[in-house]
Amino acid sequence: MFLHLYRVVKFAFQNFWRNFWLSIVTISIITLSFLSVNFFIFTNALVDTTIQAVENRINITVNFKTTASEPDILVLKNAVEKNSYVESAVYISKQIAFEKFRAKQEKEGNTIVTDSLDQFEENPLFASLLIKAKDINYYPAITQIISQSQYEPIIEKTNLDDKSKVISTLSNIKQRIQQVGWIINIFFLAIAVLIVYNTIRITIYTRKEEIGIMKLVGATNWYIRAPLVLESVIYSVIAIIATVIIVYPLLGILQPYASSYFDGQAFDVLAFFSNNFLTIFGYELLASVVLNVISSAVAIGRYLRV
Amino acid sequence: MIRFSSVSKIYPPDFTALKNIDLEVQAGEFIFIVGQSGAGKTTLAKLLTAEERPTKGSVMIGDWDITKIRRADVPTLRRQIGVIFQDFKLLPKKTVHENVAFALEVCGAPISRIKTVVPQVLKIVGLEEKVHRYPRQLSGGEQQRVAIARALVHRPKILIADEPTGDLDTITAKSIVDLLTKINEFGTTLLFVTHNRDIVNMLKKRVVTIEDGEVKGDKETGKYIL
Ligand SMILES: Nc1ncnc2c1ncn2[C@@H]1O[C@H](COP(=O)(O)OP(=O)(O)O)[C@@H](O)[C@H]1O
Ligand SMILES: [Mg+2]
């Protein structure tokens, strides 16, 4: 078995070298289709991260009246926290709000403000509750809880920082990218499949003599067909390696732009590809191998008469 | 050993290459198949290797009805029949040794068998001194010897020689015929397709004459008559 495999691999590589330029062209086309798929993955990830970033900035801020007592506020906080829609509810007491504000002004060197702050005997700031939902669709429900009449006396103002317009725009863009992306990907994949088909056809043609002799001396079908199929698999393997070699430096170039695009919240494209390395390139290789095996098998069926 | 029973071959769409052929060849026999170009001699040979299927009738090798042969069994059949041609059909980029070894390799033969069989057959055809040459570095007769060596690697029971001397000069042709005669004497059934009158008349073997796809003559120790 090992011997058979060795010979098949040997014959496959012989074919590969014999039609060197044809092999290179074939690999280039497959690589191109891989690149197209990866660009698609990249843009998708980028849009997803953008949407995520925008979503993360959505929250409900409840400002409490200065007269509201802390226990009353905590009752509301507990009620909100217990709700299964809620991701987190952070209570910012008057005191903390004051210190934050003061620290901010000091940092910015607004001495007039800090000085005047010291003039107050009473803390002029609101206590507030910062609520994040598990999903953007849950915000209306949460708002309803808060607007129950029992809480009305303590609430000064409820603020839903709604970015749903931005999000729906982004979702639309994402859909568009996916539509166009699929068309482009299918286009490239179709070309790659045709090229592989044609390459195997040409290989059969250039090896006509040899294949004829193989049949003449009673070669098993395995020895005639397997090298041709394997040849198409070799194309995929080399193409995926080439893709990895091309994609990583490209990501390195795109990385600074991608991360500066989201102030603060970094989008690490390199990490994204590295973390999903096997998933991304593994499935690409698998899909390409399956397609190539099918297309070479069809070519063999059509052009290799027994 | 070989029996053709009412065999006809019509090439699509409607060209009749063989008509009602009845022919029996005994094991170990040396038989000439003669006839003009286009008579159907090669077609007859191709029926034996299952390269072509008869349109009608049956072809038996031993007890094996090869008209009903399954695709997967074709390689097994071909290993029992050696074939050589006018144009040698050697691989130009392989040496003598590699050309012969290739036939065993692609049949999955183990290395040990290749190591013993290849020198053996090359010795039979008298090329043990030239194993590392390429076909273009050999004379026509020597190239045909390589082809014969290759045809012998599976120790075939039948050897089909389709105009093996067609491209060779008289003296070289004679030496190839001598070699084939020797192989036949070792017990291999030999089907010698030719239209070389001198060779046929010299050997005084059985001669089957084919004309327009039909057997027109079958004579023991015959002569080439047309
Ligand atoms: N594959 C084919 N398709 C159609 N006609 C063929 C084919 N092979 C051979 N023929 C025809 O059959 C006839 C016999 O051919 P062949 O057996 O090669 O003759 P020979 O070997 O005696 O010269 C010829 O007229 C040839 O043109
Ligand atoms: Mg012929």
Low-confidence stretches of chain A: none
Q: Helix coverage percent of residues of chain A?
A: over 70%
Provide the residue-averaged pLDDT of chain B: 93
Percentage of residues in strands of chain A: 5-15%
Rg result of chain B: 17 Å
- What count of helical segments of chain B does DSSP give? 7
Sheet of most strands of chain A: 4 strands, antiparallel
Strand content of chain B: 25-35%
| CATH class label of chain B | Alpha Beta
Strand sequence of the main sheet of chain B, in spatial order?
A: 6-7-8-3-9-10
CATH architecture of chain B: 3-Layer(aba) Sandwich
Number of strands of chain A: 4
**Biggest chain pair contact, residues each?**
A-B, 19 and 24 residues
Question: Which hetero compounds are present in the coordinates?
Answer: adenosine-5'-diphosphate, magnesium ion
Count of structural domains of chain A: 2
Low-confidence stretches of chain B: none
Termini distance of chain B?
Answer: 28 Å
Count of distinct structural domains of chain B: 1
Distance separating the two termini of chain A: 24 Å
How many strands in all of chain B?
10
Model description:
The complex is a heterodimer of chains A (306) and B (226). Chain A is 74% helix and 8% strand. Chain A is built from eleven helices and four strands; from the N terminus they run H-H-E-H-E-H-H-E-H-E-H-H-H-H-H. Chain A is elongated. Chain B is an alpha/beta fold. Chain B has helices spanning 41-48, 74-79, 96-105, 111-124, 140-152, 170-185, 197-203, and strands at residues 2-11, 15-25, 30-34, 56-61, 64-65, 81-85, 158-162, 189-194, 206-211, 214-219. At the A-B interface, helix 1, helix 8 and helix 9 of A face helix 2 and helix 3 of B. Adenosine-5'-diphosphate (ADP) is lined by residues 11, 15, 17, 35, 37-43 of chain B.
